[in-house]
Design a protein that fits this description.
The structure holds 3 protein chains of 3 kinds.
Chain A lengths: L2 H8 L18 H37 L4 H16 L2 H17 L9 H26 L3 H9 L4 H31 L2 H6 L2 E2 L5 H12 L5 H27 L5 H8 L7
Helix pairs in contact in A: 1-2, 2-3, 2-5, 2-7, 2-9, 2-10, 3-5, 4-5, 5-7, 7-10, 9-10
Chain B lengths: L1 H20 L3 E5 L2 E2 L3 E3 L5 E2 L1 H12 L4 E5 L5 H6 L5 E2 L7 H6 L1 E2 L9 E5 L10 E5 L3 H9 L2 E5 L2 H9 L5 E5 H5 L8 E7 L8 E2 L4 H16 L2 H9 L6
Parallel strand pairs in B: 1-5, 1-6, 9-10, 9-11
Antiparallel strand pairs in B: 2-3, 3-4, 6-13, 7-13, 8-11, 8-12
Chain C lengths: L12 H8 L3 H36 L3 H16 L2 H24 L8 E2 L2 E2 L14 H34 L2 H9 L4 H31 L11 H9 L15 H31 L5 H5 L1
Antiparallel strand pairs in C: 1-2
Helix pairs in contact in C: 2-3, 2-5, 2-8, 3-5, 4-5, 5-7, 6-7, 7-9, 8-9
The chains are: A mainly alpha, B alpha/beta, C mainly alpha.
């Protein structure tokens, strides 16, 4: 079987399109590259969606944590504490147990599937981490910016949306980039710890361990997996770099450089 | 100072013994697969294979120690020399035989069984649970049934209990330990997949393999192997 | 453990649990907490050392050295730790044995790779197959520490690299103006000051390190999550005097509490430490704005 045929058969195997059975013989490099790459679809799906939704929740949590009212502040603090303070491994376990209970009670049976349940856990997880980063940045927003806004008569929601929030993002962006990288890495834990794999449709790590198990040689599939993730990380850094440039576009050139040398606050 | 010299002498002595005796043989097992091998209340490796391994070592006049290792990396660690044999309920398959060598089987091939909440479950239309990347998982995939894979055997059984799957396919001896608990029942249908269980050794380790082969044969011949199989209910007898 | 434990089936709840919690396998569980803590406290400084070396080499003026440092940071950071853990321990082990083989058995004529087998001469084996079980365990532990350190060293290198650049350039220039050599300025001015900038990043890294410990079982160390899964699973009366159903949720809840407490205590400690480090730094407020 030529490599092109393998790609046709297996490139979309992880979402159920193409050959039904996984390769049983040969385990050529082409097969390994194609299937592990196919699994990356899941990692991309989890990572991208969780970041997108988590971004908005994180903004809310960050504001909540710095709120004066304890009714807003305490829940935000606890939310961040629980999700940042415990391993994702354990969070997946509990989430799955809880979703099962909900399902048995007759509600929302789709919760136990990885594409919904694990996504929710990842969203909450990244919301907590990014919420903490955003909160740190919120505290660092220069007082002068706010005072200037006040002087112009910009108040309330409009001040937050046009002054505070963009500045917060600008300050938080380097650390937030790191969080995004980590989140993509964390997506490998979905099928590894908590959620079951249906019809052999799994993520990149699932297929990598399939090949490691069949060939008894871990030195080929896992480095392939690593290679894919290095590419993904480069893409994330590139994309976030573009956003960073846009966020900083109003600053004079020399201050931009100063911003880049801030110590990275990683997750 | 005297004490130091003494202990040095003792050390030399034991080293000398070991060299003369041949080295300690390290037996690798998983420790999470009752009744084959598991960790008992005292925190030690126990089960059918513990007793079997100790007996085999005695008959082959080898000094043995037990090591536990994750199932996923149990073969890579054998070929890279971190222990000398695998004795972990491992079925002899062609795939594995290409990478390592097996002694003769110490249990006859045993079918895999299904465990479900009721005996009239529809296997073809239902959801079947299996441990990820096992021969059972491959079997269901090949049949074209709906397969759901969990990382550990414990979770596959739990999946049937809480309704995520309609049945679980696994080794009969393992499912026997759950049969009848919480309303789980075993189906009459069995699948003949997998060969007998043997000890895995490195392909370059012919001498060790021959020793264990002879020891297994002697246990088969005098009936002690059957007694052991009956005691732990791991499979049918020879 | 207790005298009344001889016949657990007849015991009341309290006594039953008293007996259950003192069985040998539960002590394995308690022991794994010690293992994890010891591993963390050894790994942290080792990873920091790797990180320091990485950051130094990334800053180097010699291009190949700088590339090496930057590649180390970029590659290891780009890969999920779990992917590394899957093959790194065996790779390290084989690497060490290969080196020893070359050194100790120069006239060995057979190939090292025979088919799938990796075979070195008996003297080169690590640990020697004559050594006791505890030597094997210590060696396995050492490999796990090394793997963790290499992976988290890359993150530490990234943090320290950023911190070194955050120290105001004027400070270095002043030092050189006072006649310090480049090396002197690095060790006497840059290194003492960078810690303040590195503190938030290192604190976070420590948290990540704590939360990566559930993956230790991939490195052959039987950690707390391994035992919780093992002990929590339902167990048949045939194999134990203390049969029970699926207790994984209870065991995992215990772990959750442990991890939350541990990270909380660490957070407080790091807060104190960074406040102490910021003390007396003229730029303390300026740098944090």
């Amino acid at each position: 079987m030529s490599c092109i045929e393998t790609i046709q058969d297996y490139a979309l195997r992880s979402i159920g399109i193409g050959e039904r059975l996984l390769p049983k013989t040969d385990f050529t490099l082409c097969q390994q590259f194609t299937l592990i790459g196919s699994g990356m679809i899941w990692n991309l799906y989890f990572g991208a969606l969780a970041l997108l939704v988590g971004f908005f929740i994180a903004s809310a949590v960050a504001v909540g944590k710095s709120a004066r009212s304890p009714w807003l502040r305490k829940p935000s603090e606890w939310f961040i504490f629980v999700f940042r303070g415990s391993p994702l491994f354990i969070q997946f376990f509990f989430a799955y147990v809880m979703f099962l209970k909900v399902k048995q009670a007759g509600y929302m049976p789709w919760l136990t599937s990885a594409q919904a349940g694990a996504l929710i856990v990842l969203i909450l997880n990244t919301s907590a981490y990014s919420g903490e980063i955003f909160n740190g940045a919120l505290k660092a927003v220069p007082r002068g910016d706010i005072e200037a806004a006040k002087a112009y008569g910009i108040t309330g929601w409009s001040r937050f949306r046009r002054i505070t929030w963009p500045t917060m993002l600008r300050l938080a962006w380097p650390a937030y980039t790191n969080e995004a990288i980590f989140l993509f890495h964390a997506t490998t834990l979905v099928f590894f710890s908590g959620f079951p794999t249906w019809r052999q449709q799994g993520d990149a790590l699932y297929y990598a361990s399939y090949f490691a198990d069949k060939t008894f040689n871990p030195f080929v599939p896992y480095p392939i997996l690593a290679g894919y993730f290095i590419l993904l990380t480069l893409c994330v850094i590139g994309l976030y770099g573009l956003v960073n440039k846009r966020l900083n576009r109003h600053l004079p050139a020399e201050r931009k450089r100063k911003l880049r040398i801030r110590p990275n606050l990683i997750r | 100072m005297k004490k130091l010299i003494l202990s040095a002498a003792a050390l030399a002595l034991t080293a000398g013994f070991a060299a003369a005796d041949g080295n300690t043989v390290r037996l690798g097992t998983e420790g999470a697969y009752a009744p084959w091998n598991f960790i008992n209340d005292a925190g030690e490796v126990d089960g059918f294979e513990r007793e079997l391994g100790d007996e085999l070592c005695m008959r082959a006049e080898l000094e043995c120690t037990w090591v536990t290792n994750e199932w996923d990396s149990i073969i890579p660690n054998l070929v890279s020399g971190n222990y000398d044999t695998i004795i972990a309920g491992m079925s002899i398959t062609d795939e594995r035989d290409e990478v390592i060598d097996f002694t003769q089987a110490y249990t006859p091939p045993d079918p895999s069984a299904y465990l479900a909440m009721s005996t009239d479950v529809d296997l073809e239309g239902g959801v079947i649970a299996a441990q990820a990347t096992t021969i059972q998982a491959g079997f269901i995939a090949e049949k074209g049934w709906t397969l759901v894979e969990y990382a550990t055997p414990e979770e596959t059984v739990a999946a049937v209990r809480n309704g995520e799957a309609d049945a679980v396919l696994a080794d009969k001896s393992f499912l026997d330990t759950h049969n009848g608990v919480d309303g789980l029942v075993m189906l009459e249908r069995m699948e003949a997949i997998g060969g007998g269980v043997g000890m895995g050794v490195r392909e370059s380790d012919g001498e060790l393999r021959a020793k264990f082969d002879a020891a297994i044969q002697s246990m088969k011949d005098d009936g002690t192997l059957n007694t052991l199989i009956a005691k732990w209910e791991v499979s049918s007898q020879w | 453990m207790f005298e009344f434990c001889t016949n657990p089936e007849t015991l009341g709840d309290f006594q039953w649990f008293a007996c259950y919690f003192t069985t040998g396998k539960l002590f394995n569980f308690y022991g794994s907490f010690v293992t994890v803590l010891v591993l963390l406290f050894i790994t942290a400084p080792t990873a920091l050392a790797f990180g320091f070396l990485g950051a130094m080499s990334a800053r180097s003026h010699v291009a190949p050295v700088s590339w090496l440092g930057k590649a180390y940071i970029a590659i290891v950071r780009g890969v999920p730790d779990i992917a590394f853990f899957m093959f790194f321990v065996i790779a390290l082990d084989q690497g060490f044995e290969y080196l020893r083989h070359q050194a100790l058995c120069p006239d060995w004529d057979q190939p090292i790779r025979q088919g799938n087998d990796f075979i070195v001469c008996a003297q080169a084996k690590l640990p020697l197959s004559t050594s006791d079980q505890w030597v094997h365990e210590v060696y396995g532990f050492f490999l796990a520490v090394l793997t963790f350190s290499i992976v988290f060293g890359a993150f530490a290198a990234n943090v320290l690299f950023g911190a070194m650049r955050a120290v105001p350039h004027g400070q270095m220039e002043t030092a050189e103006a006072y006649g310090m050599s480049h090396r002197q300025a690095f060790w006497r001015v840059l290194v003492p000051q960078m810690w303040m900038y590195a503190m938030p990043g290192l604190g976070n890294l420590w948290m990540i390190l704590i939360k990566a410990t559930p993956l230790l079982f991939l490195l052959g160390v039987e950690d707390i999550v391994y035992w919780a899964r093992e002990l929590g699973g339902s167990i048949n009366p045939r194999f134990t005097d203390y049969p029970h159903g699926d207790w994984r949720a209870q065991f995992f809840f215990g772990l959750l509490v442990f991890y939350l407490c541990f990270t909380r205590v660490s957070e407080i400690a790091f807060d104190r430490l960074s406040r102490r480090l910021a003390h007396g730094q003229a730029i303390a407020t300026g740098g944090a704005s």
